[in-house]
Amino acid sequence: MKLSYSHLDLVALAVFATCWFGYDWFARRHAASRPSLLTVMNPFRERWFEQTLTRENRIVDSALVANLMHSATFFSSTTILVLGGLLALFGSIEKSADLFENLPFAQRSSQQLLETKVVLLILLFIYALVKFTWSVRQFNFVTVIVGSIAPKETLSTADEGAAKRASGIVTLAGENFGQGLRAYYFALAVLLWFVQPLFFIVATGIVTLMLYRMEFHSRTLDVLSGNAE
Question: What is the percentage of the chain residues whose pLDDT exceeds 90?
Answer without folding.
Answer: 66
